[in-house]
Amino acid sequence: MPNIPVIIIAILAAALVAWILLRKRTGAARQADVSAPNAPSETLENGRRRIPESEHQIPRRYLDDNAMKVVYRLEDADHEGYLVGGCIRDLLRGLKPKDFDIATSAHPEEAEELFRRGRLIGRRFKLLHVRFGREVIEVATFRASHDQGEAGREQARTADTGMILRDNVYGTIEEDALRRDFTVNALYYDAKDHSILDFAGGYDDLKNNRLRMIGDANARYREDPVRMLRAARFAAKLGFEIESDTAEPIRELAPLMRNVSPARLFDEVLKLLQSGHGEASYRQLQRFGLFQYLFPLTDQALESDDYPVETLLINALCNTDRRLAQNKSVTPAFLFAALLWYPLQLRMRELEAAGTDLPPIPLLHEAANQVLGEQVKCTAIPRRFSTPVREIWELQLRLPRRQGKKADQLMEHPRFRAAYDLLLLRENSGEDLGGLSQWWTDYQVANPVSRREMMPEEQSDRPKRKRRRRPRKRPNQPPQGE
Ligand code: ATP
Ligand code: MG
């Protein structure tokens, strides 16, 4: 007969041991128990400054658990590990970080050995991705900029324009801080005492709402022209003033955007226009003459007096910002369909003027091929988005034709919702569609009887084909009069 109390005690003891081990492993115990020194901010050697927790006051509960696990794991293996970049900047601004990045003294292969769920990736430089369910924590080895690396290290290659092609040059934490773009992006959170390390004056800049490039802005934009887009984006997102030396070179260097790959620019466009501050980003892009390198056809269309190009563009971006603020989904397909709608109209007109004799829908597809073909030279558009863009456009031509069963069939179309949204935007922006968007708004909520009453008369835009009557076979009748 088993001794039940002993079994229960054994189970409880095992559970306690497991719990203690788990806490130790995750570092959660450390996060909760270590109290920060209440010391004032100190200036250390090399202008480095340490800001204690009592001063920066980032609540520990906002630090991502998984990111902290990664930092503690690195430290346990005698490496340095810090939360760095946008996450610290955003936490100090009271914003929710989009992702948590980690900088470490461990080389990528050393870091990889520590994480079962780690995977080395590397396009421009080697990084470790540590996966926790759907969350991915990015771990990057401290890097020096190409002209700082110690002798014997792999040298970065630069193009004639000064652009960095490859920069796998490992370095110290100071070097890592100085090769980052803006001072507010070079703050390191030290999990050992919960202080922040600042190598470039980013903490003060952040408190003063100032975006400042580390080093010589002109050279830093030449090294990587995407930094110009990042300047526009952070100014918009954070509501920061761009410091004059940082702002000044952008307009002149904007043409360097042509050297950036379309795939990278597509990613940047989404961060600029689909992260909740699209309208503000658009204004910054225009302020610096950068928009034309992302959407050249849209930028040209802004000159046209025939269409409300900028109104629709601003309305589309405000709409996207509002949806994101309400945690609603947004899709790049809608954004591209809206931004390129008038370039498409202009191209259709040009084709017609050149004598193309295509019916409306094939004409639209021909213009769509040309417009999208030119757009992908600047920003890649993956096929999973370009196909829906064409469908949203085609539906703009089909939405006016809603007689009989067509209206209900259109509503079944997978892109109906997006197409209806574009129709609304067009009419709200000043296009005269004869109240078509209101009709569709009403139709969607009407009951079947009202829907029948709403049905418009058959449209006369298509010439009605006369139905030929087949001569009816008459039964053999005796001729009249017989
Ligand atoms: P967010 O994630 O909100 O878009 P972020 O600043 O975190 O902003 P990431 O692209 O995630 O941007 O980059 C992480 C960090 O890497 C940055 O904060 C910055 O320190 C550094 N960094 C990113 N891109 C560059 C760049 N082009 N040049 C120099 N440093 C960069
Ligand atoms: Mg980030």
From TrEMBL:
Basic and acidic residues composition bias: residue spans: 450-462
UniProt keyword annotations, A-Z: ATP-binding, Membrane, mRNA processing, Nucleotide-binding, Nucleotidyltransferase, RNA-binding, Transcription, Transferase, Transmembrane, Transmembrane helix
Chain ranges passing through the membrane: 6-22
Pfam families: PolyA_pol (PF01743), PolyA_pol_arg_C (PF12626), PolyA_pol_RNAbd (PF12627)
InterPro entries, per database record: PolA_pol_head_dom (IPR002646), PolA_pol_I (IPR010206), PolyA_pol_arg_C_dom (IPR025866), PolyA_RNA-bd (IPR032828), tRNA_ntf/polyA_polymerase_I (IPR052191)
Entry EC no(s): 2.7.7.19
Described purpose of this protein according to its UniProt entry: Adds poly(A) tail to the 3' end of many RNAs, which usually targets these RNAs for decay. Plays a significant role in the global control of gene expression, through influencing the rate of transcript degradation, and in the general RNA quality control.
Name of protein: Poly(A) polymerase I
Annotated organism of origin: Marinobacterium weihaiense
Organism lineage string: Bacteria, Pseudomonadati, Pseudomonadota, Gammaproteobacteria, Oceanospirillales
Gene that this sequence comes from: pcnB
